[in-house]
Design brief:
The structure is a homodimer.
Chain A: H1 12-22, E1 26-28, E2 35-37, H2 39-58, E3 62-63, E4 69-71, H3 72-76, H4 79-85, E5 88-99, E6 106-108, E7 113-120, H5 125-135, E8 144-153, E9 167-177, H6 180-201, E10 207-210, E11 222-229, E12 235-245, H7 247-251, E13 255-257, E14 263-265, E15 267-274, H8 276-285, E16 302-306, H9 310-330, E17 335-337, H10 345-354, E18 359-363, H11 365-370, E19 372-377, E20 383-387, H12 391-416, E21 418-420, H13 424-434, E22 437-441, H14 446-456, E23 459-464, E24 472-473, E25 480-481, E26 484-488
Parallel strand pairs in A: 3-8, 16-17, 16-18, 21-22
Antiparallel strand pairs in A: 1-2, 4-7, 5-6, 5-7, 8-9, 9-15, 10-11, 10-23, 11-12, 12-15, 13-14, 18-19, 19-20, 22-26, 23-26, 24-25
Helix pairs in contact in A: 2-6
Chain lengths: 491, 491
């Protein structure tokens, strides 16, 4: 197991790409822009999924499944939506192949051309609102609180594993409400569900806010988001929740008879997170030795590696190891005893460090005599000798501590890399030389935002929900501003 | 809630279609051949998924995810596979749309034509074996035991909800082994996992067997299957497990260095079940009043309906209802107290009968005085009055009983509809007038099978694994045969 990762300092981007592949999370496939999510990466994704799914159901949502293909004409119905999504997409034009009588190769059968092309869903608002028209007649049919776990495709020219791939996995919630107020509350609730999940479960601190007009979802009235900061000082949008107003209800003619007897258009939200979260996870916690996983997300939380010469020693070590396995499992901790004889302990140490297993326990014959084991934690790389007696409780506490420590470490990093800029020079200096989040005044116009982006590659990540009113001047134009917004270069 | 289902006797096919829609399981979408799985149907599918996933993991499998799109050329690599799958499929030819300068509509951008067309996966052997080439070098990398939950597309001209749709959901296991023997054992193991799942969890009795050459999976050496019998006497293939030999390893050049130092091709299996199981579920247990669900699969196992006049009575009933809810939940039973004031009890009775909720508890003011509740079971439609005292334990037992009863009922039905035919006349008479499974002798040739199919629409469902050696004569040709095989008309 030669790991030899490029360090973060040498080349952050290369470090990320290597780590994702070497830690067995994902790899590029033979299909341009599409990745293979390997079993170890998928096991982490399943943990994310299960916890999110639990939180969605706890807030009253149900899962359903809608078609992969969307007729081209559906996209035409919502004007801003088509601009945002229907352009870079996979288009199905035929439904049959045949043998070429000359070359004997299989070719597309020209006789099997579809009357109307089908788009592989880039997002499902159109097909879902086309369906909701059947589901909604009366106020009694509302709210509809539905989520879908699905694959989506957005044609991307420059792709990176997890962060930007043509096909990715995600969940998309689509809700329908009788009133504007209820829909806004739903959109805000789901942003809060995402934020709490990111912080408590993934140990990733996030800023909650709303997007500027330029960065809004195509078809939304308001886009709520959570923004995280990666170790290279670039921001990553980790989840979005959209208040869609009545745009899709009007486009797809979805109305209901209200309690007052009047027929009204339905109010909508949509919200989603994707396998991009896997990228955020890697880039928030990992180090030059490999992956670092918060215990909540680790498929293997504890690995036990025996140190031995000969079968007799292995047998003696195994007795204790198996007792520890049983004790930890009884405490709900996932544990692996790696007694493979085909690899040396040093190889195994490297392997589990690279894969981010939170705790490694090493047991040798001398430890047995003393009644201790060596416990190494992945986050700080510290080792200590702990008594075998009562080990379970200590490991359990340590896992809780590590989960908190990783969050605190990420939070400290974010605080250290959050700046205030009060002039254009200061702003440019920070963006160029320090990176991180920059709180600065902005005059509120899309033109100014666009110009700042062109000049510095920094965008407005969000207008933070907790922003205090503060009179100031736009860093670019000097025009008046009432609050600071958050700028950063972003993934 | 007007249910008015067509009865099974009137028109079995119509009954099925109506039931699937009226019980809120699924509906057709605006996209030809693609269905929408509604929340209630999806909740049942989730229960199937979770239990299957648990059984896969218990037998050592891990999940992963492979690309939706497969380059056309991949299909060319395995000759029989391309014949079976690459023909009726969705073909992606372009990756961009644009505004038509004249009509202003969005049209396919002719400049964005793919160099090589992409096929939306009908099954993933090709893309997965293309990936396994990277994963496998040594015997130490084997076995690979991977499963994928995914959507697949096979272009279908005549579609039916769950039974045959262009897009469907499924799982596909793909394993790689060092020896032929190990791969055969894996394929057999997974057939057994499917059979046990169908019988114990879904209460659907199945025959285990192997397919004849005509019915084999395209690219397989042997296809194992489980076959179930529907209430109209037609068979339904509920799951298949394939021993693929070295076909895909050779097509994609996947080799390993064995312990003896020699380089060899890898041995393969694949196995899958799909949302088709939802169709099998509906058609095995349901009746003219609607869906009947085995308790294991019911999203709501018990519903409590209050019978009351005025709020004061509702309050008194609710006290007892809430106690029962708490008691049942503590026993791990999913229960819903439907206290909606917007619907009458009769409407609710119909609704839950239609949706197959296993147990309905009705509570009125008179019941309160007597300390009893009315318990109705969905499978037999029987009602009885039970003491509120100790109700939880009784309900739990009743659910277990109902699960067993549904299996026994389906097994009895199958036995009654399983026949032996010893002459062509007898065979045709049974197929035409009785339906069901027919055990008959066959000479073992594809030609005879094909002729029987043309004449009677009956196919060989399988050569049962438990078939005893029995000398006989083929019902069509009179040629010698060593065992009976199972014929039926099938979905």
């Amino acid at each position: 197991m030669a790991k030899h990762l490029t360090t973060r300092k040498q080349d952050y981007s290369k470090w990320y790409n290597e780590l994702v592949v070497k830690a067995d999370l994902a790899q590029n496939s033979g299909v341009r822009g599409s990745m293979v999510i390997k079993p170890y990466g998928y096991a982490i994704w399943e943990k994310l999924q299960q916890e999110l799914d639990r939180r969605f159901k706890e807030t009253g949502h149900e899962n359903a499944y809608f078609p992969l293909f969307i007729p081209k004409s559906y996209f035409n119905k919502e004007a801003s939506h088509v601009e945002g999504f229907a352009k870079e997409c996979a288009v199905v034009t035929h439904y049959r192949l045949k043998n070429d009588p000359v070359s004997k190769d299989i070719i597309v059968d020209p006789d099997a051309k579809l009357e109307e092309e089908l788009i592989v869903r880039p997002t499902s608002e159109t097909i879902i609102w086309d369906t909701y028209r059947d589901w909604i007649q009366s106020y009694r049919d509302l709210p509809i609180l539905v989520n879908q776990w699905a694959n989506v495709v957005r044609w991307e020219m420059r792709t990176r594993l997890f962060l930007r791939t043509s096909e990715f996995l995600w969940q998309e919630g689509h809700t329908a409400h009788a009133t504007e107020q209820e829909a806004i509350e739903e959109a805000e609730q789901m942003m809060n569900v995402y934020a709490d999940f990111a912080e408590k479960f993934m140990a990733i601190p996030v800023i909650k806010g709303v997007k500027s007009v330029n960065e809004r979802f195509a078809g939304a009235i308001e886009t709520y988001c959570i923004e995280a900061l990666m170790q290279d000082g670039k921001a990553l949008q980790a989840g979005t929740s959209h208040f869609l107003g009545q745009n899709f209800a009007k486009a797809f003619d979805v109305k209901f008879q209200d309690q007052d007897g009047k027929v009204k258009h339905v109010w909508a939200t949509s919200w989603g997170v994707s396998t991009r979260l896997m990228g955020a996870l890697v880039m928030t916690h990992s180090d030059d030795n490999g992956l670092v996983l918060p215990p909540n997300l680790a498929p293997i939380q504890v690995v036990i590696v025996p140190i031995y010469k000969g079968m007799e020693e292995l047998e003696r070590v195994s007795v204790v190891a198996n007792e520890i396995v049983a004790e930890l499992r009884a405490l709900g901790i996932s544990v692996k005893f790696d007694n493979r004889d085909t690899y040396k302990p040093g190889w195994k140490f490297n392997e589990y460090e690279l894969k981010g297993v939170p705790i490694r326990i090493a047991i040798g014959p001398r430890d047995l005599e003393k009644g201790v084991v060596e416990v190494a934690r992945r986050d700080t790389l510290e080792k200590e000798s702990l008594a075998t007696q009562g080990l379970g409780g200590k490991i359990k506490n340590l896992l809780t501590q590590m989960q908190q420590n990783l969050y605190q470490k990420a939070l400290d990093f974010r605080e250290e890399n959050t700046h205030r800029a009060d002039s254009w020079e200061e702003f440019v200096d920070i963006i160029e030389n320090k990176a991180g989040f920059v709180y600065a005044h902005w005059d509120g116009t899309p033109e100014t935002e666009e110009e700042i982006k062109t000049k510095t590659k920094a965008t407005i990540r969000c207008i933070p929900l907790d922003a205090k009113k503060e009179i100031g001047k736009c860093i670019l134009t000097g025009k008046p501003s009432e609050r600071r917004v958050v700028f950063a270069r972003a993934y």
